[in-house]
Amino acid sequence: MLGNGRGAVKRPTIAEIAARAGVSIGAVSYALNGRPGVSAETRRLILDIADEIGWRPSVAARSLSGSRAHSVGLIIARPADTLGVEPFFMRFIAGLERELSGRRTGLLLQVVEDHRAAIEAMRLCWAERRVDGMVVTDLWTQDARIPVLEELKIPAVLVGRPRPGTGLPAVWTDDAAAVVSAVDYLVALGHRRIARVAGLPALEHTRVRVAAFREAVLGHGLGEPRVVQTDYTWEEGMRATRALLSRRDRPTAIMFDNDVMATAALNVAQEMGVSVPDELSIVAGDDSQLCVMVRPALTALAWDIQAYGVHTARVLLEEIDGRSPGSRQVGTAGLVVRSSTTAPPV
Amino acid sequence: MLGNGRGAVKRPTIAEIAARAGVSIGAVSYALNGRPGVSAETRRLILDIADEIGWRPSVAARSLSGSRAHSVGLIIARPADTLGVEPFFMRFIAGLERELSGRRTGLLLQVVEDHRAAIEAMRLCWAERRVDGMVVTDLWTQDARIPVLEELKIPAVLVGRPRPGTGLPAVWTDDAAAVVSAVDYLVALGHRRIARVAGLPALEHTRVRVAAFREAVLGHGLGEPRVVQTDYTWEEGMRATRALLSRRDRPTAIMFDNDVMATAALNVAQEMGVSVPDELSIVAGDDSQLCVMVRPALTALAWDIQAYGVHTARVLLEEIDGRSPGSRQVGTAGLVVRSSTTAPPV
DNA sequence: CTGAAAGCGCTTACAG
DNA sequence: CTGAAAGCGCTTACAG
C-alpha cells in the first residue's frame, strides 16, 4: 500500500534505471551525481534514461543516506495581525527562494506568536531533521533563540548585525548610515527640531537606529535628541505623533521607524491641522507601496529587501556546507525623496 | 561523517531506545506509534526513555518507510512586486500553520512568477516526494495547473470554487453573496449609478464577482452594469477611476476588487476635486489595515482569511489521508462600513 | 505479547 | 572502470 488514498503512481527509482541500463545501482548513483567511477559512455546512457523516465531523487532517501534534509527553515515570530501590512517578509522570502530553488533546497516556513514558541519549533524541526539550517530574523538585543541555536549546533544565519560572542554568520545592512543620511538630509533642508518615532525597543536594529539618530542629532548640535519608543503599530504611531505635535516646541520633522507609523502620522497631522510638509516633514523608515499610496507621498528609506534575501540564503548554504562564510554586509538603504519633506517653516 | 561541517550532534535513534529498554526496535516503533503489540508496562518504559533522551522521529526515515513526506506545498504564482502589499498570504499562511503544526506537517513554500513556473515547481516537488499534497490558490477560469495535478494524481485542495470536472476538493467563500450585499447596501443608501473596478479577468473569482455584480445591478433595475477590468494594481486602479469619473454620467459609487485600487481611487478623486464620500462612495473588496490607514477610512468587505487557511489545511490533510473530504464553504465576507460611503448627492 | 528481518530509495566505501 | 554490499532510521508484515 502506497501513500495517498487515491492510488499513488509508482515513481521511477534508480533500480529501474540500473535495470534498463544493465548496470548496478551504484553505477547509476555515481553517474547521476557526476562522480568519477563510470565511463563517459555509461554515464551518458544513464543520464538519458533518467531523463526519459522523468526520474528525480527522493529527498527522503537522499536525506537518510546523505544526512542532509535539503531544506532550510524560516520561523517568523510575530503576532499574526502585524504580519499583514508588512511587505518585508514576502519580498524577503522571494529573495531567499531565488537562491534556494537553484540549489534544490526547500524552504520550510513557520509562523509563531513569540520567541518561546519559536524556540520550541526550532527544537522540534531540528530533532526531526526537517532542515539543515535556519534563517533568524527580527533579532532582539537579548535574543533567547541564539543560545539554543548554539547549544544544538544548528547552522544558522542571523538577519542582522554580527554578534561577536557567537559563531553564527550574519547578513546585515548599515542601518546607522541610512539613519544618518536621512538626518543629514533634513538638516540640509534647514530643520533643527527633528524627532524620531522608534520601533520595538527589544529589537536590535531599533537600538542601532536610535543610537545613530542620537549621534547624528548631537553631531549637528541640535540639542538633546527626542525619541519616542513604540511597538511599530498604527495605534502607537498615532499616539506618538500626537504627543510630539502637542508640545509647544514641536518638531518640524519626524522620522518614523516604518511606513505604517509614518502614514498614521499623516492622519494625525491632518486632524490636528498641521500641514505636511509645510509645517511638518515626515520620513518613513521602510519604503513600500504604501508610501506612494498616501497623500502627500512619503519620503522614505528604501532597502533592497529581495537582495537581502538572496544574500541570506547564500550565506546560510555556505554555512551548511561548512565553509564558514563569515558575515556579509548588503547595500545601505537609499533615501527616496517624495512630497512629505521640505524646508521647515520660517 | 555526519551532516554539517560544524561537527553535528548525534541524534538519538530508536535503536538507542531499544537498547536502553532491552527490547527490539520493532517493539519501540509499535510503542511510540501507539499500536498494539507491546505490553502497557513496556510501552510506558519506552515512552519514558524516548522522552528523557529527547527523541523525535527522523522525517526522512519515516518518509522513506511510510511513503509520506509529512509536508504540504504552497506554490504562490505571482510576480514578486505584487506580493508586498497583499496582506492575504501572510494571514492565509498563518491559518494553514495553525492546523498543520498540530498534525506535525511542514509547509513548503515557493514563490514563482507564473503558471508555467508553478507547474514546473509542482512536478519537481512531487517527483522528489517533498510533499504529500498541495494548496492551489489564485485559480484561473482556465487553469493549466489543474490537469497537471490530476495527471500526477497529486492530492490537492483548490482555494476557490469547486470544479465539477475534477475530483479535487475545494474550499471557498461565497463571493457572489458578498458582492450582492455590498450592492444592496449602496442601493439602500440611494445610489443608482454604481460601477465596479474588477481585478484580473483570468482569475475565477473575478469572473464570479463580476457576474454577481451584473446580476445585482440588473436586478435592481439600474440599467446596463458598468465594469472596468484591471490587473489589481495601484496604477490600473488610478486609470480605471479616472476613466469612470471623467464621464458625464459618472457613477456615484464604485466598488473595487481590492483595497489597493480603492486607495488609488481616493487619490484620484482628490486630484479631480471629487469629494469622498459626498460626491463619490467607495467600497474596497478586501478589508485590510490599509482601509483604516487612509482618509476617509474605507468601507470594505472583510473576509476571515485565517479561518480560510485553517479549513484549507484541514481539507487537504483529509484528502491526503484518502478520506475524500468533498468541498467546503467557509463564512461569507461581512461589509464593514466606515467613512467612504454615504448617500449620493441629490 | 515479542523478536528477527525485510524493505523504503538512495549513498558510499570496499573489493575486484 | 564496475559490482556487490552495508548502511541511513524508521515501519510493518511475519514468525514464534
UniProtKB/TrEMBL annotation, chains A, B:
<keyword id="KW-0805">Transcription regulation</keyword>
<dbReference type="InterPro" id="IPR000843">
    <property type="entry name" value="HTH_LacI"/>
</dbReference>
<keyword id="KW-0804">Transcription</keyword>
<dbReference type="Pfam" id="PF00356">
    <property type="entry name" value="LacI"/>
</dbReference>
<dbReference type="InterPro" id="IPR046335">
    <property type="entry name" value="LacI/GalR-like_sensor"/>
</dbReference>
<feature type="domain" description="HTH lacI-type">
    <location>
        <begin position="12"/>
        <end position="66"/>
    </location>
</feature>
<dbReference type="Pfam" id="PF13377">
    <property type="entry name" value="Peripla_BP_3"/>
</dbReference>
<protein>
    <submittedName>
        <fullName>LacI family transcriptional regulator</fullName>
    </submittedName>
</protein>
<keyword id="KW-0238">DNA-binding</keyword>
<dbReference type="GO" id="GO:0000976">
    <property type="term" value="F:transcription cis-regulatory region binding"/>
</dbReference>
<feature type="region of interest" description="Disordered">
    <location>
        <begin position="324"/>
        <end position="346"/>
    </location>
</feature>
<dbReference type="GO" id="GO:0003700">
    <property type="term" value="F:DNA-binding transcription factor activity"/>
</dbReference>
<dbReference type="InterPro" id="IPR028082">
    <property type="entry name" value="Peripla_BP_I"/>
</dbReference>
<dbReference type="InterPro" id="IPR010982">
    <property type="entry name" value="Lambda_DNA-bd_dom_sf"/>
</dbReference>
